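Box 3.1 A note on notation
Throughout this textbook, protein chains are presented in two layers. The first layer is the amino acid sequence; the second is a token string describing backbone geometry. Keep the layers aligned when reading.
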Amino acid sequence: MSSEISIKAESISKNYQIYNQPQDRLKQSIYPRLRQIIGKTSKQYYREFSALRDISFEVGRGETVGIIGRNGSGKSTLLQIVCGTVNPSAGKVRTNGRIAALLELGSGFNPEFTGQENVYMNAAILGLTKEEIDSRFNDIAAFADIGQFMDQPVKTYSSGMVARLAFSVAIQVDPDVLIVDEALSVGDMAFQEKSFTRMKKIRDLGTSILFVSHSTSAIRNFCDRAIWLDNGKMRAIGERLSICDEYQKEMEHEIRRDFHPMTSNKISTATDGERVERNNCTISVVAISLDKNTYRMGEDIKIDIHLRFKENPPVYGVGIIVYDLSGKVVTILNTLRDDIFLSEEKENLILLIKDNHFAPGSYNATISVSDEQGMFSYDKLDSCLHFEVEMERSSRGLAKVDGMLRCEHEWM
């Protein structure tokens, strides 16, 4: 395998034997052989489940590849096979260099050992000498930032603390290949921010990253290519934007198909947009309001956003997503999409939607403040605004607009 290829998977398949009862496993180990000896047709006491079927791909040196798919599509199984913790039923995987992995929470940790003991054990498994671990331990402890719990048994840790420690070890061993499952999602927002920043740095230094996430924004902004797994099969592989668009379209179609409108009236309005600030947020949304609740077609819509900053901010973006009452996205307006990258403490921000082209109806809006690549949110308020666009009629009583939007037009 070329030194420019970090991971090469060839026709990977993984099958599991599913037994309905514990005793069926014993029967399967004994009866088929006995029946074969006496010349009878053997009987199967299990059903076969195919977790992966004929998966092939390559990851180049310094390349980041994202894996998306529904729960149960085989993403975690594939990562385990690449790491070598699970053997494939067919096919093979070849890797170049040291692999560090963050898979299921607590995998590789001894719950009876302290955090420090687990650091030394895991780093040694990944190939570091005791002297190398000694020199890096303070950096590992500082990044994990779990304080006195470093000297406590891991069984006393929360899931977020386990993720902090596991990720801190994985990135400090100078891996050639970093494999990350969805485990980071249990960490708090500040730690996710710090983790993605560090992954960007090691990616730029040449580390190959295989990254599983349910967030298409993370895949779009962090990865070079994407793999879409569906029921154990590779649905698509290629340029990450097109793959994420295809996946999101299918997910939105399923959401619309299964959507049942809510009857709750607890959606925030312009008058009750104040909220309690989250203590650990680098950037918090403290208030958002509309200049009115009902608009005419073609009227400007003004949205006031008030932010609060815990510290000097990194580059960030602010976005608004507008939904109709069926839950369908009508439009997304975001500073990042407009190539506006905010870097100063802008506590008051105004979004002016000029000459609104919304069709008559009711709308909800969500606001999010994200990092400069839109990978994760510093803060987010779902359904924090509600507004109406009034129906207008012609002189004969016909609705001036039907459908999804109002188009500027002229009859010639």
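Residues 184 and 192 are 7 Å apart (CA to CA). The first helix runs from residue 22 to 37.
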